[in-house]
Amino acid sequence: MSRRRALLIGSQVGALQGVEGDVAVMGDVLEDLGFTTDRRTGSASSAAGIVAAYRELIADTAADDATVVYYTGHGARERGRGPRDDPEVPTWLQYIVPTDIEDVSGDRARCVLAEELSMLQLELTNRTKNVTTILDCCHSARMSRTPDALPRALEVDLPRADLLRRWAELRADPALASVTTDSNPDAVRVVACSPAELAYERPSAALGGRPHGVLTAALVGVLADRASTDLTWREVRDLVRGAVIEVVRQRPEVEGPTDRLLFSLDTRAQTGVRPVRVVDGVALMDGGALFGAAAGDTYLLVPPRRVAGAPEITAAVTGIVDGRAVLALTGGTVADLAAGTAAWPREVALGARPVAIEPPTSPARPALIAELVRTAHVRVVDDTVGTLATVRLGEDGTQLLDADDAPLYRGTTTPTPTEVAEDVRTLARAAWVRGLASGTGREELGDDVEISWLRVGDPGGDEPLTQGAHLFVGDRLVVRAANRATRTRYVSVVDVGLAGRVAILTSSEPDGISVTPSRAYEVGRSAPGASGLPLRWPTGLPDDTPRSETMVTIVANAKIDGLGQLAQTGVVTRSGTLTTRLGQLLEDLVVGRRAPAQVSGDPVRYRIVPFDFVLHPRPRPPDSPTEPNFAVDERPDDSVRLVTPAPSDHEAPVRHLDLRLTDLDVPGLADRPVRLDLLVAPAGEVVRARTVRLPAGGGLPEGGLLLDEGAVGRFLDLALWVGPDGADDLDDLLALATTAPRADGSSGSIAALVVAAARALEDRVGSGVQPAFRTLLLPDDRFGTGNGVRRRPRAGLLRGEGIAFALELVDPDAR
């Protein structure tokens, strides 16, 4: 007798708060679907515990069983090889992060490598072909893409020799010769994002306001719906990706046999086919709300067995009742519908994006709703959580907010309902373009064209860019496509602007720039006289905060017809001349409805490569000298400066912070008076500078020494120097008392202040001043005050050359 069994692993380490909640909600929904769950968290999700639990599942699995392996927590990576190392070794070794990750005793890395997970999955699929793996984590370096979520990536320093040894042993195993981490043909693999992106957690309104992985929250929402029992994994991918990308710029993927029905070996190649029920004389289609059905969607109603000469019955959606779409029939009546009739899509909404209108009592609301419901791109909802956009109607004007609650109109404006609806449609189209996925199956294209991004600098001084790069108005970009294939490839670059406008950057060949084998093409520099793609701030867009922008590169093995339509505005109708499935998909994105496939022959194979960056609304600050090397530098990757978790209903955000020095040891100043100089830069707040003077040896008063107290912003950037006493206080040296600058959120401006402080201290105090401590405090752990942990470090002292100390971080409002 077949069984349903699930192993759920949660590793709550670092600043993550929602892992154990993820295991709970995923376990509950799987049990509702008939699974017996084995939940492993805390010490049970150590490195050894994870492997042991996985092997227990393998040993107890029979051929007819359905199995799920779910992991939620941090993903990480370690440098595998450098430029001169063995080229067979991957650049990065990827792994999940168990709860004992910090234990490196015996030079052993307590982690589970991606290849080790691959081997375990292979052993499981050798027992049963019905395997589903779900990974809600990130395997990339840390970065920020949205200002209201916490990345699920972690940077950990592990024994590299042990990782390389384990990797080599696994790759030498003949069992892995026919399968890799990404391509086991018998396992469905649900991943939170691509290897170059991040997964996030944030409070979920649908799950009680508690923090959860964004993938987990979206997947649970789909699995819990009564209409989900006959979904394919391909349909789940579309539903989950739409829900996720409206919250964060994260692109979930489902790999493997995606035409399988959920947790089954049965398949259904057609997408969007829904059962039809007749209730009280009305034809209803299951799953209408789940699939975002919109008025005007059309279907062909197909009986379980066709009868020769029977009339063709079509249906159009007129509304949604209790989650089911209400159908109006043409060519027949409900009496003609046999039991088991299914609705096959002819032209349906391409996942209508949710939009909220506030307040619900505004007299202008009905007219705006009437405009919005005329498009298949969006649907009006009451809850503002997780929406594509929110329209706020007021007596003094209208404001349109994007998914990050950032305003899109500058000042007081009075756009017409038609103008607002067009701006909302623009945002919806942009969301779809950002969410484009690479081809799968016959449409999959290998990774044979290397895509890289460069910021144009002085001759020979181009700066390579990584995901989440901070860029400035006036910067110039180059997108470089290097063809390593043996055949010509076709490259197109699409820009999704700050206000949602879509532009084709490869306009010289709108259907794709031809790149021959062993050649490279640089978008923005290959044309005569071109010196990079200039970055601009859209006219009329508020310029008080940095915003996220995306460039999407499409690599294909043939010309991409229909691509130019993405940049069109106004009413767009179908051309009827498309020759590729990809072209039809792009046309669907513009029209807002998915039409049945009408192309034949060999499909275009294609790969989507997105590049997300943060654009600042001002020119790049002048280059500053390199900051001094601080004895203790705890800063994470600079891009996390825009990471701000959404506030929870269960706790107020930290608005103020007291910073107290509780221990200090400065051996080199044992016989001299000591000065401590502190520079504090909270995002959006006035920069604070302070000097504290101590007796010889740095003796602290009883109870510690208050170094700083004041407001925090999205982050708090801190630099501390220690040295022999002398000269003026730091605020006088920097003249902050009169200039009172604000920290604008960019690392460049703060670095300039740090360099200026270092220079002033060295010039006025002397070379004995030592850069002691540098950190970036983030709200993801309540600026270090969360979970009752206020001391930094939790035990012992922070140690650097010539200094050892400990700090206490206190939220005064929580006392």
Automatic annotation (TrEMBL):
InterPro entries registered for this protein in UniProt: Caspase-like_dom_sf, Metacaspase, Pept_C14_caspase
Segments forming domain Peptidase C14 caspase: 3-256
Protein known as: Caspase family protein
